[in-house]
Amino acid sequence: MIPEVLLVFVLAAVAVIVGVRWLAARTGLPAAAVLPVVGIVYALLPGPNIALEPEIILTFVLPPLLYSAALNSSLLAIRRNMRIVVSLSVILVLLTALVVGLGFQMFVAGATLAAGIAVGAAVAPPDPVAALAVGRRVGLPPRLVTIIQGEGLLNDATALTILSFAVAAAVGGEFSAPRAVGQFLLAAAGGALVGAAVAYAVRLLRPLGKDPLMANAISLATPFVAYLLGEKLHVSGVLAVVIAGLIVGHDAPRSSSGASRLQTSAVWRLVDFLLEGFVFLLIGQQLPAVVRNLREYDTSTVVIAVAIAVGVTLLIRPLWLALTQLLPRSLHTRLGSESGKLEEALGGREVVALSWAGTRGVISLAAVSTLPLVTDSGAPFPDRDLLLFCTFVVVLVTLVGQGLTFTPLVRLLGLRANEVDEARIRNEARSASVRAALDRLDEIAREDHDDLDTQAIEAMRAQLEHRLRRYQGRLDLLQSSDSPEIPVSPRYEAALRTRRAAIDAQREELLRWRDAGTLPDESLRRLERELDHEERLLPERTS
After folding, report:
1. pTM for the whole thing?
2. Which residues contact 395 (CB under 8 A, 6 or more apart)?
3. For the residues 188-214, what does the mean pLDDT come to?
4. Are 381 and 371 in contact (CB under 8 A)?
5. Any stretches that span the bilayer, and where are they (predicted)?
6. Which residues share a beta bridge with 342?
7. What angle do CA 285, 153, 416 make, to 5 degrees?
């Protein structure tokens, strides 16, 4: 594709992504489900298309998306729910690949077990983007969000490792289960060690992270370093990226400056927005090419293969979730928990929501696209085109079908986070932080200081005490509320409106100074940045 055409294509894709995001914000439809449909429509029109290059996806797209998701996840929350996260991201992925493989071997004419396990590994890992986008918007409980996040972070490494073993067996004709298990454990352990080493290296670069630009450069480079290092050492590069992101995200509050965190967070939100949009558009564009390659198969063979892939993918997840909740309570220990407390079992509504959160995405298509064209003997890879089509159908059925219906399902189930409890915890933490600041002022006051220091201490004390009274007022209102919704405080809302109006007036006056030629543009941008940070501190809603 010539550069001018590629540029036009990229700009058109950005326009579509922005338009779909605007539509999603006003209709409640998940953008991750709408974009593939738009991609399919475009693929059926005359004009250039971009083919899905699996190596580009796995090297340039997957690491930053996984790393960003890991940065925004909670290492402690995932640890508290480690049993179910491991159950879904490792055991369920293995089980899905095996059942699909057996189904292909038994019911699809000419299919081998290795080829079936390959497509099973490709369709096994859910892509949580659509489910999380909906879940956060409708207020899904934090524990379910954590489980979906943790599963999405870890299942890709499991699936890609299984796929590599299945491909090796299909290409070379030899497969050893004990050897495969050993290689899997080695790849997982090695990937975790590489990720921890990369996170430690980032921690050593902490002094550079005080500068926002350097912090952004280091943050953007980290997932690629972790992935390439893992692949170079023949361990799981995907798991290395995830572990590095979890550790770096856990350390970020104490290892980076406020300015660096604000800028880095904004950069990663933009990266996520564009990469996810391009990826979901790209999924839809593959449909014509995939369908064209099915001419050599009987219709009955295609139907049976698709039915097995889709049926197993949709059914095994709820069955596994229900089964694991019926296990004896003694098996529900928190892995890694120092207290050894029992992990709380999932309720029926939570099992239903998690079952419907198993949308598949670009990882499935990228994984199955890595299947080789020929085996070691020079023969065509068995049923490669059929495997591609089955994976594509599974992705479309789950991404569009489950993605579009997840919002009404969650609302029908009545699963909502307790917003009052969350707001209460936030305000208790705010109050505790202010009390810690007041205690520090008392320590400073007891030291030797002059009158100017005394004035500064008293001025700061007055500000902190005023803030503490405001937080305490919010706490009293929250504790007296019987509603699951956050109560509205007219006084608090009025204060927010007043502060926003004052900031707007300051901006308007600065612009008048600039337009009059009194204030240089460089000074205007600096003063605007101060007002932007002040406005950023204001909550978007009462919390």
Report:
1. 0.79
2. 36, 123, 283, 360, 361, 364, 365
3. 89
4. yes
5. 6-24, 31-50, 56-78, 85-107, 153-172, 184-205, 235-252, 273-291, 303-323, 386-406
6. 333
7. 95
